[in-house]
Fold:
Amino acid sequence: MGIKVEKTNSITTIIIDNPEVKNAIDRESAEALADAFREFERDTNARVAVLWGSNGVFCSGANLKAVAEGNHNRIEKTGDGPMGPTRMVLSKPVIAAVAGYAVAGGLELALWCDLRVVERDAVFGVFCRRVGVPLIDGGTVRLPRLIGVSHAIDMILTGRSVGAEEAYRMGLANRIVDVGKSREEAESIAQQLAKFPQTCLREDRLSTYEQVGLNLKDAMANEFEHGLKTLASGEFIKGSKEFVEGKGKHGEFF
Structure:
């Protein structure tokens, strides 16, 4: 129960497993979730993580029953966020496998991930609007950056439900899959990412995030610095030789 971790080769799948509360996150679960991602970051064999909720629900947010009983999630300016890993900046990608509800803090966890693979019956929403719980795990920051201020402010002010198709049109969902297939598809994508030259993938990923808020000149300079790290790794020399030998030609990746 709580948070589980399963590893297959270079893929780490982190599972929220609190079915009696629709995978809501209390203080203990948030700490365990953050610890699981810290371990993923430290694990030199791990290349990509998948975040998935068991029993057909991604995450319904903070555990309000626990909050009402006095067991509050962590609320401090520094360190982990109330939902756990939402303030972390990892060096490796994380893919959310979203089934059922990804609402309130659960939406914020999905937003924290790099990609979102979404089942057809998934529901996103700022449901915490109904009870006066603020978005405090990056929701007011990441949501408008992903889907634009107009879509984001609609979701944030109204707290309405957003289904998979609308989420895809907004840019909130990256893939839509059949019910019960989100984990499988997310892990398949993770395996694809794990096969790429990792220094290049990670440096390009970080540059993409860091350019937000920078002017063009500074963003280009920052990109160049990340590119130098990739070039220093020598990955491009190995890749170039493999390309000449026939690997990766005609649009083939593997």
In short: The mean pLDDT is 93.
